């Protein structure tokens, strides 16, 4: 990243001279889980909505839903009609991810 910034600064100063090509960096996503960090390359930024209503989720799959929400971009929305999950549990998990999770 610093090398890229250095090249950009050199190109600003090189008025009329030949500029160096600026490297393109991939969109690196960092997910912090406690003391560890996981790094991912985000290749598909347009995947923003998933409706999983036809799947049979129950209260044992809440951890799976939370894992999905923790590993997706902040603009990602997940929705599902899940009558097997109690309303109280659904409200509590939806409050963790406001405007992103609808159960």
Give short descriptive properties of this protein:
alpha/beta; 103 residues; three-stranded parallel beta sheet; 19% strand; elongated; 30% helix; two-stranded antiparallel ribbon
Please characterize this protein's 3D structure.
The protein is α/β, with parallel strands linked by helices. The protein is built from 3 helices and 5 strands. The strands form 2 sheets. Strands 3-4-5 form a 3-stranded parallel β-sheet. Strand 4, helix 3 (87-96) and strand 5 (101-102) form a beta-alpha-beta unit. It is elongated. The protein starts with a helix and ends with a strand. The model has no long low-confidence stretch (mean pLDDT 80).
What's the layout of helices and strands?
Layout: H1 2-13, E1 28-33, E2 36-41, E3 49-51, H2 62-70, E4 77-79, H3 87-96, E5 101-102
Parallel strand pairs: 3-4, 4-5
Antiparallel strand pairs: 1-2
Q: What is this structure, in a nutshell?
A:
With 103 residues, the protein is of the alpha/beta class.
Total number of strands: 5
Computed over alpha carbons, the radius of gyration is 21 Å
Number of helices: 3
Instruction: Sum up the overall morphology in one term.
Output: elongated
- Gap between N and C termini, in Å? 40 Å
Mean pLDDT: 80
Strand count, sense and barrel status of the largest sheet are: 3 strands, parallel
Low-confidence stretches: none
State the helicity in percent bands: 25-40%
What order do the strands of the largest sheet run in, or round the barrel if closed? 3-4-5
Strand percentage lies at: 15-25%
The computed structural class is alpha/beta
* Helix-strand string: HEEEHEHE
């Amino acid at each position: 990243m610093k090398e890229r910034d250095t090249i950009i600064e050199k190109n600003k100063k090189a008025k009329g001279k030949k500029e160096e090509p600026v490297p393109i960096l991939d969109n690196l996503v960092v997910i912090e889980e406690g003391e560890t960090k996981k790094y991912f390359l985000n290749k598909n930024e347009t995947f923003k909505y998933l409706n999983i209503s036809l799947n049979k989720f129950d209260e044992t799959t809440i951890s799976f839903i939370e894992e999905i929400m923790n590993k997706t971009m902040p603009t990602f929305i997940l929705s599902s009609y899940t009558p097997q999950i109690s309303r109280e549990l659904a409200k509590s998990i939806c409050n963790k991810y406001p405007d992103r999770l609808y159960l």
